[in-house]
Design a protein that fits this description.
The protein has 5 helices and 4 strands; from the N terminus they run ββααααββα. The protein is an alpha+beta fold. The strands form 2 sheets. The chain has a two-stranded antiparallel ribbon with strand order 1-2. The protein has a two-stranded antiparallel ribbon with strand order 3-4. A hairpin with a 5-residue loop joins strand 1 and strand 2. The chain is globular and about 45 Å long. The relative contact order is 0.11.
Amino acid sequence: MALKKTCKCGKIINYSMNRCDTCVDTKRISNKEYDNKIRHSKDNAIYDKFYHGREWLTVRMVAVVATHGLCKDCLDSNIIRSYHTVHHIAPIKRCWEKRLQVSNLVPLCEECHQMRHKRML
């Protein structure tokens, strides 16, 4: 019997999968919208290159593995919820030199990610 796990949406999927088919399509659309609205301006070309680079993908995965793919803020509140994004604690626009430091990264669910950004304003 194959190992199973829960997708971010709650569906049961094979352990080898990252997301169910529905979530893969949704993630692809949301990433594309974000890229078009935020990352693909002339000012943000360097960030676009960074976020699609091998270094970022590797360091990002280290941060995710450290929390077992769970939201760090939820875990701190004794809630178990899958992460949605890896957040830079010190934004890379302000602290470029910390962009690849695992200590500057935290996996968060969408709700916690939005709360962190609201606190930054």
